Amino acid sequence: RNVHWIFLGSPGVGKGTYASRLSTLLGVPHISTGDLVRQELTSTGPLATQLREIVDHGKLVSDEIIVNLLSKRLEAGEAKGESGFILDGFPRTVKQAEILDEVFDIDLVVNLRLPEKALIEKCLGRRACSECGKNFNVASVDIKGHSGSPDIKMAPLLPPPQCVSKLVTRADDTEAIIRERLRIYDEKTQPLEEFYRLQGKLLVFDLPGGIPESWPKLLEALNLNAAAADVEKQSAAA
């Protein structure tokens, strides 16, 4: 399907996970600008050198560089016959959204939300295997609802036995840094949400829990239940 979708969401909300699942379901690429930056850092050339200097000094990567990386990725995908995309991590500001609007007609912007307490617990629970590189989460989130809001339960994503002794935590996954990251995200993203709300393209989706609880309801909100059922039938037939 030739969809042009954007996934928004605070750090730790899991937008990459859901965007990736929808990418597989719809047969369109899931493009994370964070991944594009990391890939470029492993290459050689003037842009990689410029990026390393920015990252090493803790500065923000400019809109110009992000748009450059994104354009390169989309052109390469088009040459391979890719159709559409699901963007994750871009845009983050109204200025970036305006730049994107000059190039693409965005169909839908999905804003995933979780309470701040759940986001902090999830970020603090993030682990990666230093050997295989896979990501896990040791947090067991169990937050009681209040003022009419539902309880939120999210099971941990535990590593297999061979990874347990090799788990590492990101140096910046401390509560103080996570809270500051969330504050900055909210500050920058609220105008962006309003930008897309005024265009009639914003879908706000409050995650009811982990993947088992949230995935079916997200499919329902996106009117994709039939598409998911077709894929399941094809898989069963195969």
Architecture overview:
With 238 residues, the protein is an alpha/beta fold. The chain has a domain at 4-28 and 83-114 and 178-237: 3-Layer(aba) Sandwich (Rossmann fold), CATH 3.40.50. Helix content is 50%, strand content 16%. The chain has ten helices and ten strands. It has helices spanning 15-26, 33-41, 46-56, 63-79, 94-101, 116-124, 161-164, 175-198, 211-221, 225-237; strands at 4-9, 30-32, 85-88, 108-113, 126-129, 135-137, 141-143, 152-154, 167-168, 202-206. A five-stranded parallel β-sheet has the order 2-3-1-4-10, with helices on both faces. It has a three-stranded antiparallel β-sheet with strand order 6-5-9. Helix 2 crosses helix 4 (63-79) and helix 6 packs across helix 8. It is globular. The chain starts with a strand and ends with a helix. It catalyses: AMP + ATP = 2 ADP. Its EC number is 2.7.4.3. This is adenylate kinase.
Shape: globular
Work out the helix count: 10
Q: What would CATH call the architecture of the domain at 4-28 and 83-114 and 178-237?
A: 3-Layer(aba) Sandwich
pLDDT < 50 runs, ≥5 residues: none
Question: Please, what is the average pLDDT?
Answer: 87
SS-based structural class? alpha/beta
Q: What is the class of the domain at 4-28 and 83-114 and 178-237 in the CATH system?
A: Alpha Beta
Number of strands: 10
In the sheet with the most strands, the strands line up as 2-3-1-4-10
- Which percent bin holds the helix content? 40-55%
Q: N-to-C SSE series?
A: EHEHHHEHEHEEEEHEHEHH
**How would a crystallographer describe the biggest sheet?**
5 strands, parallel
Alpha-carbon distance between the two ends: 22 Å
CATH fold descriptor of the domain at 4-28 and 83-114 and 178-237? Rossmann fold
User: What value does the Rg take, in angstroms?
Assistant: 19 Å
Can you tell me the CATH superfamily of the domain at 4-28 and 83-114 and 178-237? P-loop containing nucleotide triphosphate hydrolases
Strand content is: 15-25%
InterPro entries: Adenyl_kin_sub, Adenylat/UMP-CMP_kin, Adenylat_kinase_CS, P-loop_NTPase
Catalytic activity: AMP + ATP = 2 ADP
Enzyme class: transferase
GO molecular function: AMP kinase activity; ATP binding
